[in-house]
Amino acid sequence: MKPVLLFMAVALTALCCNALKQEAFAPEEVYRSEELVITRISENTFEHTSFLQTQDFGNVPCNGLIVRDDGETLIFDTPTNDKSTDELIRWIGKTLHCKINAVIPTHFHNDCLGGLRAFHEKGVPSYAYSGTIALAKENDLIVPRNSFSDSLILKVGRENIIAKFFGEGHTKDNVIGYFPSEKVMFGGCLIKELDAGKGFLGDANVNAWPGTVEKVKKTYPDVKIVVPGHGEYGDSRLLDYTIKLFKTP
After folding, report:
1. Cα(182)–Cα(27) distance, integer angstroms
2. Contact between 162 and 177 (Cβ < 8 Å)
3. What CA–CA distance (Å, rounded) separates 101 from 124?
4. How far is the C-alpha of 104 from the C-alpha of 75, rounded, in Å?
5. I need a surface site. Which of 81, 174, 198, 226 has the fewest CB within 10 A?
6. Which pLDDT band holds residue 58 (cuts at 50, 70, 90)?
7. Residue 166 belongs to domain spanning
8. CB-CB contact of 160 with 199 (8 Å)
9. What does the buried/exposed string (b/e) look like for 224-233 if buried means 16 or more CB atoms within 10 Å of the residue's CB?
């Protein structure tokens, strides 16, 4: 009887410690310069934010995501230019002491692949949806070097990372990224922050947009953190808000 009780006590202690560890985590800004901000949003994910000067919307903050496990990282969306991308690469090496396994632009606009050249110069593999590669070529942009047709699973350390195309919305080619072990989604510009407007619609399929996000929500019902392409991250309410926004005339 005593060994059973001892085992139960040890298991309960471990469970409590894990629960306390999860509750103790608080998001934290870990790096800031004039061109780049990095915020730790879960144990192994970091939001990177750079800036894009636009004619219609001014100097726009643009988000991406760093996912980490066991000395390796993967990045969704580049910073907006090579300079801030070099800064991000240096920070990952010096602060996280991690290798960059891959970068995945989530659509063809500059806020997703504007710094792709810097990754290529460092020998970092790039992956993108086939539609993104076609649009990058069509618009004479730096082209990702590896293609996928529907979804992609890559390893970071011991964990799987998913990139998947669900349909048109902000662009014809927008994909989302997902980190299953921490239930963190990078929605990119397909997903809006709470209370955002519709934003740039020059390449959008507004009619398809809410249905695409409904598919995302159905596929990942347990998502805990959702990072949009612009603005504040949150939870699944960002998916609901985006669906409602584009269902409204």
Report:
1. 14
2. yes
3. 7
4. 6
5. 198
6. confident
7. 27-247
8. no
9. ebbbbbbbeb
Residue 128 identity (one-letter amino acid) = A
**What token pair was written down for 64?**
């991406």
Q: Has residue 3 been placed in a domain?
A: no
> Are 39 and 29 a contacting pair, CB within 8 Å?
yes
DSSP state of 142: P
Q: Number of folded domains in the chain?
A: 1
Q: Is residue 182 predicted with pLDDT exceeding 60? A: yes
Is residue 196 over pLDDT 70?
yes
Residue 83's Cβ-count burial label (10 Å; 0-12, 13-18, 19+) is: middle
Mean pLDDT of 26-54: 95
C-alpha to C-alpha distances, 22 to 172, 230, 246, nearest whole angstrom: 38, 26, 35
Contact 119, 126 (CB under 8 A): yes
Given a cut of 50, whether residue 11 has pLDDT beyond it is no
201 part of a folded domain: yes
Distances (CA, A) of 173 to 52, 124, 167: 20, 22, 8
Q: Does any domain span residue 68?
A: yes
Determine contact, residues 173/165, Cβ cutoff 8 Å: yes
| 225 domain-assigned | yes
Q: One-letter amino acid identity for 240?
A: D
Distance of CA 23 to the CA centre of its chain: 23
90-102 residues labelled b (16+ CB within 10 A) or e (exposed):
ebbeeebebebbb
